[in-house]
Amino acid sequence: MNREEFIVCRDYAALDLAFSLDGVYDILFGDTFDDRRELFGAPEKGYYDWLARLMRSVLSFEVNSIGRDMDDILSVTETELRELRRENKKRMEFFTVLTDRLTAYEYVLNRYELKYAPEDRLDDFLKSNPEDAFLNRLIIYLTKDRDKKIFGTKLQSVIGEIPVQITRNKLFEHIDRVMKLYLDSDETALDELLYMLRMASLVMQPGEYLGEYPLLEKPLNDFETTVLDEMDEAGYNLLRDEIFDLAGKLESIMDYYHELQRCVNDTLALCLVRKWLPEQEVLVSPAVSDVITHILDGNPNENDFVPFEGRIEEVSLRLQRQMARVEAPDMNAEEEEEYLDVATLARLLSNSMFAEIDPLFVESRTVTKEMLKEKEEKLFNEMTEVMKASQKPVRRAIIAKVLEKLPPFISSQDEIQEYVRVNLFNCRDKAERCAVMAILLEMMEE
Asked: The whole model's pTM is what?
């Protein structure tokens, strides 16, 4: 990239850092999240303090450092930022595991919602939604968009809601068919699919941070220790409120780590950019530096942002255009270093906050039959162990959530109609049938 293109990266990173830091500060110390304040403990404040120290170091580059001294500060700061970024990513993976458990448990509780309703209420609902009219409406909802990708996404969501009537072995057969499509392809793509299936099937475990967030873990533990088939209406209401309240808490703390990672990415991007700018070029303009310093000093001022309104959108558009043109050069040593920094910048300044940069490029193998079999057996053993240890409603939720992640195994209107009639309309649990129809009606209205 040329000097002007590195300046675009600098301008975007500095502006985005100011706005994102304001969001992080508001979550931790502002009034917006007062009802969630108890969620943010020593780790969250510790990471903020760590980042604040590194940001002050970056802001002082031009003020206190020249030549070799600046190179040393850059190197140390960059190393710490990469470490902080890895820590944040591990935390986010922990919360993602909890979220996948929450999603499965919400699925179960949604199907219990009408279990305690009077019989005549269920009959009235079914009379108001005759099967043929409901099915026609569902087909129209699925097929009104000609885009095959939109159709497939909608169909996956519908299949994920309809009561599951397939066995574990049938599910494994479907997974096997999908995995075989990856034969002779890149191993990385297959591993991405397997990661997604492990998350959906609750194979992934919370790991080292378990026990640090009792407010988040208690609702999930309460669900797991409840005998669902013996749950009365009062117990259901308590568990439902607890689980649904957890959704808001998880969203809040994940918002924090998302914004914190954005700040880390922007700060790290500034470190990388500094190497490719002439010494006379400032890294952060005085106006932006003042905004950041005010926040770090605990004195944020919304008026500080007025001069930058609309500016970040303009710079973002220029950044996207130039990054789309980046190609690997025929490398000598200096070109290789620049290209690696540019490729890293592209990931840091993208919307994928947790994209891998350590290592930046991974040598991937080609998927062979032997590799496929080995990975498949490992996945199926893990899923079998989880499902055997789970209550029946949770097993059904796991199968539904896994099916939702896979390409649909039905596609024609006739197949869809048959699937709905067999699996939904023939569901013997009238309360579950009504609950699922209500969920699908809400989906169609949205």
From this structure: 0.91
DSSP of 93-131: HHHHHHHHHHHHHHHHHHHHTTTTS-HHHHHHHHHHS-H
Which of left, alpha, beta for 67 (phi over 0: left; psi -120 to 50: alpha)? left
Query: Measuring CA to CA, how many Å separate 100 from each of 97, 200, 267?
Result: 5, 6, 31
C-alpha span between 361 and 191 (Å, rounded): 15
Q: What are phi and psi of 366, to 5 degrees?
A: -85, 140
Check: CB of residue 92 under 8 Å from CB of residue 261. yes
Which residues, 6+ apart, have CB-to-CB distance to 335 below 8 Å?
A: 329
Beta pairing partners, 366: 186
Q: The tokens 């579950």 sit on which residue? A: 432
Please, what is the angle between helix 67-112 and helix 42-59, to 10°? 150
Give 312-352 pLDDT, tens digit per residue: 999 999 999 998 888 777 667 677 888 899 999 999 999 99
Residue 288 CA: distances (Å) to CA of 70, 183, 421: 21, 51, 60
Total residue count of the chain as it appears in this document: 446
CA gyration radius for the chain? 26
In angstroms, how far is CA 107 from the centroid of its own chain?
19
Question: Nearest CA to 266 among 306, 309, 316?
Answer: 316
Q: Kindly report, residue by residue over 187-217, the tens digit of the pLDDT.
A: 999 999 999 999 999 999 988 899 999 999 9
Token pair 């990266």 is found at 9
